[in-house]
Specification:
This protein has 314 residues and is of the alpha/beta class. The protein has a single domain, classed as Rossmann fold (3-Layer(aba) Sandwich). The protein has eleven helices and 14 strands. Strands 3-2-1-4-5-7-11 form a seven-stranded parallel sheet, with helices on both faces. It has a three-stranded mixed sheet with strand order 8-10-12.
């Protein structure tokens, strides 16, 4: 375990942060979260009693809010982002100013000694070559505004140095700030509640990673920063480069009544299709500990409690 650090996490009350921040505190680090709480989430309530935890409400794009918070930070983890193709297409200005420009602002304000570990998406690989693994050296060809803004932010961070970038697979699993719209989470939700789904472009493949393993890989990056610095790392389950159809077959093992059909027409907004090599991060001693099946089982339990019915009348 590394020495105790003072860590600033922007967007720390979100899906990743509300799992990662308690893990950082458990390792003895001091953590300050900056979040605008745009989803009215109460996802960090359970750690307010920890004296090593602090929180500020504010916008991660605002230099006047960032400056005092950066003064005491050894490490910055910028999680604040509009995540996913649909939300970015709905708010193009927000996507560019939050996903890219806020990172550029951070880099301007940080000292050379301060470290940064950031997540981006492996959707930057866009449409991969058939049967070929995408490694960290594969050219990035993002097909969405979301992918493009994250790729531009990553380049700035790695060019600046004293940094690590994690190219995360599609994240799944239950988190205190839950997201039902991520692919695995969405498909399990439909399997539990609708018992049926219509698949568009069912053969498109992507890679997956549990939200708790995302927290673990950031801890691994902190503990191994010197030998991992200034490089990007794909982070996913090497046994889960699956198409949407294969994912549904996996879910049906747990929910036998689940029916899925392939649509002859129609298309996915987020047209990524690739298989990913996680060899580089594995060579650094990191292995995920939560399987796709683990995630499906916990999501089934979670959805017994959670109903995505804010706008329903039943």
């Amino acid at each position: 375990m590394s020495a105790s650090l003072s860590i600033l996490v922007t967007g720390g009350a979100g899906y990743l942060g509300s799992t990662m921040v308690p893990a950082l505190l458990a390792e003895g680090h001091r953590v300050t979260v900056l979040d605008n709480f745009m989803f009215d989430q109460a996802s960090l309530n359970h750690i307010c009693s920890d004296p090593k935890f602090d929180v500020r409400r504010g916008d991660a794009r605002d230099p006047e809010i960032l400056k005092p918070l950066l003064r005491s930070a050894d490490l910055i983890i910028p999680l604040a982002a509009l995540v996913g193709a649909p939300i970015c297409d709905n708010d193009k200005v927000g996507a560019e100013t939050t996903n890219r420009d806020a990172i550029l602002t951070l880099l301007k304000l940080m000292s050379r000694e301060q470290r940064i570990i950031m997540p981006i998406t492996n959707s930057g690989y866009g449409i991969g070559e058939k049967g070929k693994f995408c490694t960290e050296d594969t050219p990035l060809r993002p097909v969405s505004l979301y992918g493009r803004t994250k790729v531009e932010a990553e380049k700035a961070v790695l060019d600046r140095g004293n940094s690590i970038s994690f190219r995360l697979a599609t994240v799944f699993g239950v988190s205190p700030r839950m997201r039902v719209d991520l692919l695995v989470n969405d498909f399990v939700y439909r399997a539990v509640n609708d018992r049926a789904i219509v698949l568009f472009e069912a053969h498109f493949k992507r890679n997956y990673i549990h939200v708790r393993d995302v927290a673990r890989v950031f801890l691994h990056g902190i503990d191994n920063f010197e030998r991992m610095r200034d490089k990007p790392y794909n982070v996913g389950l090497s046994d889960a480069n699956l198409s949407k159809l294969e994912l549904c077959i996996q879910i049906r093992k747990h929910l036998p009544n689940f029916v899925f059909l392939e649509a002859p027409i129609g298309e996915d907004m987020d047209k990524r299709d690739y298989i990913v090599s996680n060899e580089r991060i594995e060579s650094m001693g990191f292995r995920p500990t939560h399987s796709l099946d683990d995630g499906i089982q916990e999501l089934i339990k979670g959805y017994r409690m959670l109903r995505n019915s804010r706008y329903g009348n039943v």
